[in-house]
Amino acid sequence: MTTQVLKHTQTFTLESGETLPEIEIGYHTYGTLNEQRNNVVWVCHALTANSDVLDWWKGLFGAGYYFDPAEYFIVCANVLGSAYGTTSPLHQNPTTGLPYYLTFPDYTIRDVVKAHQLLAAHLGVTEIHTLIGGSLGGQQALEWSILEPERINNLILIATNARHSPWGIAFNESQRLALQADDSFYSETPDGGSKGLKAARSMALLSYRTYHTYGKTQKDQSDEVNNYRATSYQNYQGDKLVNRFNAYSYWYLSKVMDSHNVGRGRGGVKLALATVKAKTLVIGITSDVLFPIDEQHYLADNIPGAQFTELDSFYGHDGFLIDTEELTNIISTFLKTNQTSELSNLQHSA
């Protein structure tokens, strides 16, 4: 399915006070918005994903899966700065006529959500049945549920946090150091920083998986002293990202993740979390190195009425993209329970 684009021709003011003269928002929709406008499932994607959620979250979204376009109106928007359609460092600055590259302004998770809100208005979405995201996507979903608590009915947060940790920031800064070490990063060309991006992706993979994941999937079957499977895997995955992404989007999106702090300007994280009104499910992955499960426990403990469930995955942080059958069981149980509770409350009130 082709990416659709919303062109917002008015000035877009960022949390920092800096502005973009205009923005474009790339997005996908699937299914049909019903007459009651209450069947919207909005997906917030992770760091290097795109808005074609039926492609990258197979097993959970798509025909015959739990979130089926035959029943739901599914929306996913590319995040600001993405390499997949939304205004990014490679887009032309209308003021100069040249691509932004490293003159792109710094922005935050809140700015990403502000762009989502523009798209929701364009699509006529006033109520979101389920808002869902993992990792950076979960950070967006949580921020939106605080900005507009009345709009979100069900909130599903997976492998994410309330404020990005020093551990997570250190991972991201290490990757940015790799980008900076590539002299071509400052060349202001579309493929600038490609070698640094490959190295950065290799670092990131170590936080997405685990010691045991590599021990099983990349174990050598002989007594080689070179050409290890883990070596070829890191190179392959690095090249794969270089072929579909760019160093400048990666640079800015890593900084966006670092900016995540729902308590900023709201009296602290706990006070901010207390304002969430959606029925909330928090899912933590037992083997997650990047977003340790303690972070999800914290969310569930401080969001009113939130439920917490563990996903016991062999694949670490990436488990939410791989173990979709178990994820479906967890999510369907949560949503069915909420639906039953709502029906019961309606019957009692009648």
From TrEMBL:
PANTHER family: HOMOSERINE O-ACETYLTRANSFERASE. It catalyses: L-homoserine + acetyl-CoA = O-acetyl-L-homoserine + CoA. Homodimer. Keywords: Acyltransferase, Amino-acid biosynthesis, Cytoplasm, Methionine biosynthesis, Transferase. Residues 40-321 form the AB hydrolase-1 domain. GO terms for molecular function: homoserine O-acetyltransferase activity. This is Homoserine O-acetyltransferase. Its main location: cytoplasm.
